[in-house]
Amino acid sequence: MLRLNNISVSFPNGKQETKVLDGIDLNIKEEKFTSIIGKSGCGKTTLLRVIAKLQKPTNGSVDIKNNRIKIGWVPQQVVLLPNSTVLENILLPIDITKHKYKKEFLDHLLVKYGLDKYVGFYPNQLSGGQKQIVSIIRALIINPDLLLLDEPFASLDSYTREKIDIELASKIRSEKITTIMVTHSIEEAVFMSDEIILMKPILPSKIKNIFDIKFSGIRNLDLKNTQQYSEWINLLRNKLLDSIEINDEV
User: Percent of the chain beyond pLDDT 90?
Assistant: First the structure.
């Protein structure tokens, strides 16, 4: 679906420039869930913004299948209109872009993600997890070809985050939408992903490793108690820590 060719990104820094990404070559697999992990400040979100065409690369190109795709974006910080209901917030991209949608599809999403009883609620009546689910449904309502998640659960407490991961992993994956998520959580990446991209920590950042994550069963709580799941977490943790220089800040 998507290919990144020799992507580099630099930002002005006084009279000089700071190169954040350098020589990124990447194939994004269609209908797969890909996570990008790495140290804070290594360019993960910049890479996601390049894919979303919110950030123009300094060099290189992004080749898209059929030259045009619909992109759903879920930001790290929930952005909901406080004086609009859950339903109105979900339909906001429809109102802006005039995309067509089927009410049956909206009803299906609301039931699937557990918000069918909250359509008339306002953001201040929702929990943090529910607000983020509104953001996810809002991104899905346009029936995107590509779903981009920028640390979508980072603001949640650890209990709510793990609960949401378990609830959403199989649901989002069942959408069969090509999905890319930036996350700092190794556990989250392993649990939700078909593929994990590990970025190098030193700027300008490059791709250090790509891992194919395969589990025989479905993504549920039972998976978290398996040896295979623990082995993947230990492997990724060791690879991440191994990539950090001794004199680099942790």
Answer: 71
Backbone phi, then psi, for 195, in 5-degree steps? -150, 140
Q: pLDDT tier at 180 (50, 70, 90 boundaries)?
A: very high
Spatial separation of the C-alpha atoms in residues 70 and 202, rounded to whole Å = 33
CB-based contacts of 96, cutoff 8 Å, min separation 6: none
The angle subtended at Cα 190 by Cα 185 and Cα 193, nearest 5°, is 110
How many Å apart are CA 223 and CA 63, to the nearest integer? 35
Crossing angle of helices 128-140 and 158-174, in 10° steps, is: 20
Check whether 25 has a pLDDT greater than 90: yes
Which pair of structure tokens corresponds to residue 177? 């939408």
CA distance 240 to 227: 20
| Per-residue confidence band for 245, with pLDDT thresholds at 50, 70 and 90 | low
Burial class (CB in 10 A: 0-12, 13-18, 19+), 19: middle
Q: Which of 161, 152, 155 is nearest to 179 (CA)?
A: 152
- The pLDDT of 186-202, averaged and rounded, is 95
Amino acid occupying residue 136? I
